[in-house]
Design brief:
The complex is a heterodimer of chains A (about 450) and B (about 475). Chain A has about 450 residues and is α/β, with parallel strands linked by helices. Chain A is about 45% helix and about 15% strand. Chain A is built from 17 helices and 15 strands. In chain B, α12 packs antiparallel against α13. In chain B, β8, α11 and β9 form a beta-alpha-beta unit. Among the domains of chain B are: about 120 residues, Rossmann fold; about 100 residues, 3-Layer(aba) Sandwich (Rossmann fold), CATH 3.40.50.1980. The chains are: A alpha/beta (about 450), B alpha/beta (about 475). The interface between A and B is large, with 82 and 80 residues.
Amino acid sequence: MSCELMLKERTGIINPMYTCQPAGAQYAGIGVKDCIPLVHGGQGCSMFVRLLFAQHFKENFDIASSSLHESAAVFGGAIRVEEAVETLIARYPHLRIIPIITTCSTETIGDDIEGIIRKVNQKIKENHPDRDVKLVAIHTPSYSGSMVTGYDNAISAMVKALAKKGEPSEKLNIFTGWVNPGDVSEIKHILSEMQVDGNILLDTETFDSPIMPDKSAFAYGNTTIEDIADSANALGSIALSRYEGANAATFLKEKFDVPSIVTPTPIGINNTDIFLKNISELTGKPIPESLVIERGKAIDSIVDLAHMFFANKKVAIFGNPDLVFGLAQFCLECELEPVLLLLGDDNSSYKKDPRLKELEEKTNCDMQIIWNADLWELESRIKNKTIDVDLILGHSKGRYIAIDNDIPMVRVGFPTFDRAGLWKYPVIGYKGAEWLAENIANTIFASMENKHDREWIINVW
Amino acid sequence: MPLKLFCCDECIPERKNHVYIKEEGEDTTDFLPLSNIDTIAGSLSERGCSYCGAKLVIGGVIKDCIQMIHGPVGCAYDTWHTKRYPSDNDNFQLKYIWSSDTKEKHIVFGAEKQLKKAIMEAFQEFPAIKRMFVYTTCTTALIGDNPKAVCREVQEELEDVDIFVVECPGFAGVSQSKGHHELNIGWMRDKIGTLEPEITSEYTINVIGDYNIQGDTYVLQKYLDKMGIQVIAHFTGNVTYDQLRCMHRAKLNVVNCARSAGYIANELKRVYDIPRMDVDTWGFEYVKVALRKIGAFFGLEDKAEEVIAEEVAKYEGKLDWYKERLKGKQICIWTGGPRLWHWTKALEDDLGMEVVAMSSKFGHQEDFEKVIARGRIGTIYIDDGNELEFFEVLDNIHADLIFTGPRVGDLVKKLHIPYINGHAYHNGPYMGFEGAVNMARDMYNAIYSPMWKLAGKDPRETDSPMWSLTEKDSGVVQES
């Protein structure tokens, strides 16, 4: 049994796993209430990303563009930001925060975002004395990192700009990372069972928005400027994602002495146990029986499936790094063999991820981890028959690999547009583990039926 | 009424020049909305970028071609898994996207070597594919990479490949439109006339400006096959790279999307003297006109009438069934531009519907000339509409349905208004006779969905008239 970390050999990308930094920053921005992110760059940098969110959530999210045209690209784009902010403030009376997100074009031409913000702040004071609109600079050049780093940079930038020491809050900061509304619900549920007050950064539960009889509801993020400011006063921070929010937690520790724990993303039973233990340690609250019962229910479900249907099945996993590591750990818990893990960007700190060592110790198979990978890396290995997989866990942009090669695939991560409603369900927590195991089983069952592969076995199990 | 300033636009009064409400007796040439000019920053305009117009809309449709996006990864990711243009070779063009993955060091020191490596790898990984489009994006244009030189080098080294380069950074122009232009003119300059087609019919055409959304091109191809007309190239629905090199040999250019592809039709007229015939391939009655015009050009009137008779016999009854149920319904069209003028009168004539508000993302003045000529009195005509304007429009008019993109559809559903995907359709194709029926069916199903009545009902208000309404009209509640 071995665990090997390798860099993709090709230079170019065929079928990218992640998109670029500004998209991740936009994702962070839409999680904030009364916020319209302003993307400083060409118009595609925001329109395509708005479409991407609509693909995943089936909802609209407001994001503005500075509409960089040719003259600004040549002579500088400062005026476009100034005009955009003025237009946004004048037309959106509820607007309270505008993250100003750079792109490859405006990083290349070197627009001075901080300088622009200073100037625009002055103008807001003069033109809108009754308004308090925060402008936050977010530097996200697309030619480094990925949407994952962009999300992390945006959360960090907003916390750095807004966190403010005041009265202790007795709350626990939870940096969720790039998760679904269903995961946020699960986090809130766990905190509520433990009688802990959470400050969820960012609270995207409200992305799941109703159609109301009076036509009043729309999808929005629910973390307020006050919540972010108050993160400085928490009794502790837990970051559920090493690559998506942990830097903000570290900042709060260094600047405001808020104790911080980066917990392994709570996917699977053991990682959720660690999460609960960490909440308990930071708050002094015991783990209640209700969660022990939930845990037992999840284990009960998984036991029905693991050695009967999952054992020795080979799995390829791709997606955001914390998700991939977490899913691999989960696979090992339920006897699946995660033979190939794909991480989609060139973040060399993956080498130092403690989960790598844990996977190495626990693995039940020869495991390859490719970083800076694209989805062609997966497809070409399957087509060349250099690997053989029974199951794929990943997002919908990998769907044709599964379809064309007739491999069952469970959609996880972002985006999952080719199945309905997945963003409403958790993959984290005990409930998430149960949901994952049962979805994997049901997907395998459907595939057995389609292929007439011992489909008669699915009777008394 | 002359041009209109929306309340939400009071702080950007220049928007007044982009919105027209048509009134009886007006000289509409006095009120043509300004169009194809700079976007107002921060307005939440619907516009996209020039790169999108080149790659996603036109080039990416080609079915046997590597699409190499020279730049950071986002532009490639963002134009993948978003389109619905199938092909008869198992949708190669939908499954793959390529990026040269430029990083900071390339931005500083130049990305040409990176591009070349990525191109060589792409051909190596897909040995059966010998054709490639290369697109520049914002950064690789700014740093002044010379992708044409790189591609010349590659073509010398790999003798059996052919590469076309489009310089289409997202900031060029003001919208997708510039990318259309760049690709059209570049293709004409670099590739047309570099290959000779096999001519199999005395009647040859190019179908220009149709991108096979949900199989539109197949429908048109079927009619033309029946008429014995050879299509040298579809620009660019279900087409191969090499077919597009042969466009100079057609006797006629039949243009549907005059916005995105009128350029190449004009150039083919100028250089090769091929006449340009503009038609509408959406709309039941319009398609008859189109087939008759094409038939008349070649002296194939009888063949055209045969196709029309056959199709009418198959579909007219169905269309009339929907007409009964759709007449008088009021709808909006918020799309790119051309579908406004293709659809407004067609929906009125074929189905008795009223198009009451239209918005174009990137249309030019000629698109507004067309739509205002064909459109109704009292209708609102908007250039580069933005989100708050859309809300205000919906406050001021009644809309039974909106043709628009899925994200805006997700927004207006909260207002209990159904949408049909005006870009990529719900259940297409929408072109041709059968397409007109498909479109009518989707509109009917959207408007008459029982969900809208349920959405308007507040279950707490037990004495609301909505209770009996729901029972009676939709049959959701069983008879007691």
